[in-house]
Amino acid sequence: MSKNRLEAFSDGMIAIIITIMVLEMKVPHGESFQALTPVIPVFLTYVLSFMYLGIYWNNHHHMLHTCERVTGPILWANLHLLFWLSLIPITTGWMGENHFGAAPTALYGVVLFMAAIAYFILQRTIIVSQGPDSLLKRAIGRDWKGKLSSILYALAIPVAFWRQQVSQGIYVLVALIWLIPDRRIERALAGKKT
Known about the structure:
- It is built from 9 helices and no strands.
- The protein is mainly α and 194 residues long.
- The mean pLDDT is 91.
C-alpha cells in the first residue's frame, strides 16, 4: 500500500480533532475584557493541546517520509496512535472547564503518555517492516526525546494529585522540547539521496 493514503487519512483525522477542540470553546458572555476571564483556562488548555497535535502531525509527517511501503501492522499501529490523539479534545475540555483540577490534569497526562507509547509502537513497527537497514532506525538513533517525554508524562500523572501546576509545567516543558526542530529524519533523508 502507498504511504500517501495513510498520510492523508492521518492528516484528516488530526484536522478533525483540532476542529472539535475549537468548536468546544464557548463564546464569552459580555462585551468587556472581564468576560474573557472565565474562558482563560479553556483557552490555555486549547493552546497546549493545539501545540501537541501540531507536534504529532509534524513528526508523523517526517516519520512517514522514511517509509517505503505500508503494511497491515503499520496501519493498526497508526490507528492506535490516532485513537489516543482523538481523546485529546475530551481531556482538554475537562481540564479547562475545571480550572486545571487534579483528576483532569492527571487524565490529560494519561492521554499524552499513551499517545507517546502509541507513537513509539508506530516507530518500532515501521522499523521492523523496513528491515535491518531501516532509514527511520538510523534517523532516530537512541530517541532520547521520545524516552524522556514518556518518563516525564509518567512522572506528571501522580504529581497532578499533589501539585497540578507542576504537572502542567511538565506538559509545557515536553511540548517545548519537541518545538525545537528535530532534524534527525531530514538529515537521514538527505544522506540517503547522496
